[in-house]
From TrEMBL:
<feature type="repeat" description="WD">
    <location>
        <begin position="17"/>
        <end position="56"/>
    </location>
</feature>
<keyword id="KW-0853">WD repeat</keyword>
<feature type="repeat" description="WD">
    <location>
        <begin position="149"/>
        <end position="178"/>
    </location>
</feature>
<dbReference type="InterPro" id="IPR001680">
    <property type="entry name" value="WD40_rpt"/>
</dbReference>
<feature type="repeat" description="WD">
    <location>
        <begin position="57"/>
        <end position="87"/>
    </location>
</feature>
<dbReference type="InterPro" id="IPR015943">
    <property type="entry name" value="WD40/YVTN_repeat-like_dom_sf"/>
</dbReference>
<dbReference type="Pfam" id="PF00400">
    <property type="entry name" value="WD40"/>
</dbReference>
<keyword id="KW-0677">Repeat</keyword>
<dbReference type="InterPro" id="IPR020472">
    <property type="entry name" value="WD40_PAC1"/>
</dbReference>
<dbReference type="InterPro" id="IPR045182">
    <property type="entry name" value="JINGUBANG-like"/>
</dbReference>
<protein>
    <submittedName>
        <fullName>Uncharacterized protein</fullName>
    </submittedName>
</protein>
<dbReference type="InterPro" id="IPR036322">
    <property type="entry name" value="WD40_repeat_dom_sf"/>
</dbReference>
Length: 247
């Protein structure tokens, strides 16, 4: 193997450029490609059909914590306090360039990222407990800060959304439900408590019986919970429907 195909990693070990040198922290899938983000600060692009690594990008100055894809763009959130937006080069979806950098609070890690309304709004959850949101100006392509809310007493570890609602999981063991306004701002409509440890992951799905949606939460307490979130005109009532797993 040629020397140029190796990269230096910690403890003076070497690995191939197609390999991550540290833990893979997040994945995203789109258009036959898998995107992997790592604590080694790199973003790698893999072809699904043969799992070949097509591109490796030195994306951030610190660990990558979150990835999402939308309309040909890749959004990466990092412990360096930035969300970076990557576009694919025209005519190919295997080569990417940095399009825009969204900067959070100083010395604050961004732990998660979500994208709403076909890429119009981007939200990140920070280690200072804030949820920050940006809106893209469709004319100029500039991004403006439209949301800056102290959502939790401790780090926001995960975000997900369902329609006009954003859900946040935190190291303070709570889950926040937020209604997204047309301007991109968010308004709190309730908190859910039940986990005995930090809430690390969230996913939502529509609920056909009674309307609203189901919210699934996984915590460092080793439990998985499912919540019913009814959608009402004025407010959202949140109920703990059932603890699925506690082991």
């Amino acid at each position: 193997m040629k020397q140029k195909n190796y990269v230096q990693i910690r403890r003076n070990h070497k690995c191939l450029w197609i390999e991550h040198a540290d833990s893979i922290s997040c994945l995203a899938v789109s258009n036959g490609l898998v995107y992997s983000g790592s604590w080694d600060k790199t973003l790698k692009i893999w072809r699904v059909s043969d799992l070949k690594c097509l591109e490796s990008i030195k994306a951030h100055d610190d660990a990558i914590n979150g990835l999402v894809t939308e309309n040909g763009r890749v959004y990466s959130a990092s412990a360096d306090g930035k969300i970076k937006i990557w576009n694919s080069i025209q005519g190919t979806n295997t080569s990417h360039f940095l399009k825009r950098v969204l900067t959070g609070h100083k010395d604050v890690s961004l732990n998660s990222v979500i994208v709403c309304e076909n890429g119009r709004f981007v939200y990140g959850g920070g280690s200072d407990g804030y949820i920050m949101g940006w809106e893209e100006n469709q004319g100029s392509g500039d991004w403006n800060l439209v949301c800056e809310v102290k959502a939790h007493n401790m780090s926001v570890l995960c975000l997900c959304f369902m329609g006009d609602y954003i859900c946040s999981g935190s190291a303070d063991k709570s889950i926040g439900i937020w209604r997204r306004e047309k301007s991109g701002g968010i308004c709190n409509v309730g908190f859910m408590n039940g986990h005995e440890g930090p809430v690390k992951c969230l996913q939502a799905s529509l609920f056909s019986v009674g309307g609203g949606f189901l919210l699934y939460s996984g915590g460092l307490d080793r439990s998985l919970r499912v919540w019913w979130v009814p959608i009402e005109e004025e407010h959202t009532a949140v109920k703990n429907k059932k603890k699925l797993i506690d082991s």
